[in-house]
Description:
27% of the residues lie in helices and 17% in strands. Strand 3 and strand 4 (118-123) form a beta hairpin. The protein is of the alpha+beta class. The termini are far apart. It has one domain (4-123). The protein has a four-stranded antiparallel beta sheet, with no helix packed on it. Residues 1-19 form the signal peptide. Keywords: Signal. It comes from Hymenobacter fastidiosus. This is Lipoprotein.
Amino acid sequence: MSIRLPFVCLLLAVLPSCGHSLSSIPGFDPVSWRKDVYACQNQRARQLPAINAYRETLYGTRTASIDALFGRPDEEELNEQTEKTYYYYIEPGTQCEPRHQRSTANKLTFHFGPTGIVTAVLYERPLTAQ
């Protein structure tokens, strides 16, 4: 019992320091991104060059920073062992219809590991060079 307590305290001290925060991406307009829910106004695609230019800095970013920067995801999937994936549509599709059904439209995807940091930044369909 006495060995577990220091280990748990150490673990609780180290976990919050995992990952980094990200308050902005140069050239990215978070307000217009968040206003274009489900990408139905087709405004998010204009933001992709800025995202792609700083894509590597998104790795290791904490969940709270992604939430603050990109807003609430259009879709969220919870996986095993507390991992989760955020989906942000980047083009209009059937998700723009009244019931917001899942669409095959291209999406920006953030995968978070068990510690709540970004482990993958992907597109549903890879983009061509811009």
